UniProtKB/TrEMBL annotation:
NCBIfam families: mthyl_TIGR00027. Belongs to the UPF0677 family. Keywords: Methyltransferase, Transferase. This is S-adenosyl-L-methionine-dependent methyltransferase. Gene3D superfamilies: Vaccinia Virus protein VP39 (3.40.50.150). It holds the Pfam family LCM. It comes from Handroanthus impetiginosus.
Amino acid sequence: MNNIMSNHENGIPEDNKPWPELKLPELLLNSGTVRSLHAAIESEWDLLRRSACQTAAGRALWKQAINDPLAELFAGETHLKSIYEKIKKDLLNNAREISGVILAIRTLWFDSKLEAALSSFDGGGAQVVLLGAGMDARSYRLSCLKQSSVFEVDFPEVLDAKATILEAAANSKDKNHHPILTAKSLSRVAADLTEDNWLEKLQISGFEPKKSAVWILEGILYYLSHSHAMKVLKIIAENCNLTDTVLLADFMNKQATTLSSSTFHFYCDWPDQLLPSLGFFDVKLSQIGDPDAHFGLLQDPLNLFNKLRNLPRSIQTHPDDGTPCGRLYLLQASGSPNQTSS
Ligand SMILES: C[S@@+](CC[C@H](N)C(=O)[O-])C[C@H]1O[C@@H](n2cnc3c(N)ncnc32)[C@H](O)[C@@H]1O
């Protein structure tokens, strides 16, 4: 697990420069293919698909916490600059929370829970499915995947763009960006999660329903409608009737989706009740700032996340200023044929 506390006291790198000036990688600057691809992404893709690059930009800018050398290539210049400017402003204003910190913590939380889940399966080697994989580079950066077949599910154009960037990186002189697969294997599954055939496409790509699996739903459920999100969760729950399963997913509460009601749809205020109702057990809910969702990245004890954690979850607006209590819940849950059939 990449735990910044082991290298840097309280999240500040040893040289006391938490945010070095943004320098675009040579490959991004010099490769016509990668630059024109990102130009096309910006002009042709909708917000939903572009969120893949935006998320990668967050990981690229939080490089003192997340080791993801491919993130800047996947993000592209526009998204890198946009998040960099926000971080710069936050630092100037001595903000209690720096832009992108949720994303950094979320990434590290999924990394650590994935590693723990894989080691909990006898002999390792569980399959790993990333739904709405976007520009996730776990298959190239996590050694815990060395015995796992990984499946990345996303829209075809997102996966095609990812493959093109990886090919450009592999062919470049810049060895820092050469992608080296750390997973046993990687299959890209072009599918729309709102259609009925994505599970079938996953199986055609080699996913074995009877072999243990870890499902990663990171930054995806709230982009779906309520009925589509519930259908996806039910399909995974049904698969638990066949094999031992771990589900890792993040959920927005209702107030969080009001931040952009045109982008975010599905919400759940009590995912720790929803998942057991679908047949999952051992459900654990974490909030940003909890001991397992902190990673030394929240310096100021008065930060917003600590305030939220100290309020009952049923409270919808901050008592101090009446602003919405938007929360991101991080959930881990188990499924098993023995448990779900009982
Ligand atoms: C915010 S990004 C998160 C990407 C990745 N999980 C990560 O954390 O870096 C959301 C991703 O979900 C994908 N997505 C959204 N709706 C989808 C759908 N109906 N079918 C397949 N992928 C979808 C988008 O294309 C995008 O790549």
